[in-house]
Design brief:
homodimer; alpha+beta; Aminopeptidase; 6 helices; 7 strands; GNAT_dom (chains A, B); N-acetyltransferase domain-containing protein (chains A, B)
Chain lengths: 174, 174
């Protein structure tokens, strides 16, 4: 199937927001989505954007049964290793179920890596749930290492009240 | 012990670079450090910086036996959740061994959270090796969750030749 991958524009945020929700439904956690296309527009299209996004688009003749032509997205941002320098982090990679098996996911992933290369990024990282065998296999087949399995890295998170407490305990300037 | 936490300046990059190496020695991987203070200056003090950094400074009378007054740092950057919005990631938190036990690590951590709060960040995340019990305990005591243990998140990485391959396989524009 023919498809095109391009940088998302502000005007694509509604479609990206629609797919973020589809992905959350697939992950059985749709009630976790607290942001809308307005936040995406604000945070991705400002000076010093918090993220960048690519979308996959199919021609009109291949549109979905609902009439959609934007059928996948990859949302990523720049991170930093104090050992290696510039790196990238892929937050979401999604292709609508009826468009899978056409190389669109692989195309999005490769395009993110290509963008990273132009910025001299030396790593592309992401996180996968341990029960998500299809995704683990997808990335492993493309050469990625599972650092939690091989080196024992654990993800730690502060949020909600414990994050609020931390922020409130910051030393004050004299 | 009296100490001050402030945003790192370009002029602090040599000291931050020195502490990055000390941390790598502690982690028994000093040969992994490929970047120097020049890269830190370039990547942290440009338009759209790749990271931000705080340093902890002690007054002259408390300087280290080598005469150092910059005794700790926290290096972090902004990330993004497509469910929750703006988030922060703490890449490194380090205090020189002889200055530990004075609340400097906690001070740096809280200050990062405070900076995040001013930018409306709703999460602060980081990674810890599973054998690093003191660090796991430190964060847990402050309320952080271990998402690898509780939800099964695994870290996945592309780098070196497999990243190069990915980038080279990106779909070309027609």
């Amino acid at each position: 199937m023919q498809f095109k991958i391009r940088a998302a524009t502000k005007g694509d945020c509604k479609e990206v927001s629609r797919m973020i929700m589809e992905l959350a439904v697939y992950e059985k956690m749709p009630d976790q989505v607290k942001i809308s296309h307005e936040e995406l527009e604000r945070d991705g299209f400002c000076q010093n954007p918090f993220f960048e996004c690519l979308v996959a688009e199919v021609p009109e003749e291949h549109k979905s049964k609902e009439g959609l032509t934007i059928v996948g997205y990859a949302l990523y941002f720049y991170t930093y290793s104090t050992w290696k320098g510039r790196t990238q982090y892929l937050e979401d990679l999604y292709v609508m179920p009826e468009f899978r098996g056409n190389g669109i996911g692989k195309g999005l992933l490769s395009k993110v890596a290509e963008v990273g290369k132009t910025k001299e990024c030396v790593r592309l990282q992401l996180s996968v749930l341990n029960w998500n065998k299809p995704s683990l296999d997808f990335y492993a087949a493309k050469g990625a290492q599972d650092l939690t399995a091989s080196e024992g890295w654990h993800f730690i998170r502060f949020d909600g009240q414990n994050l609020e407490n931390l922020a409130n305990e910051a030393p004050k300037d004299e």
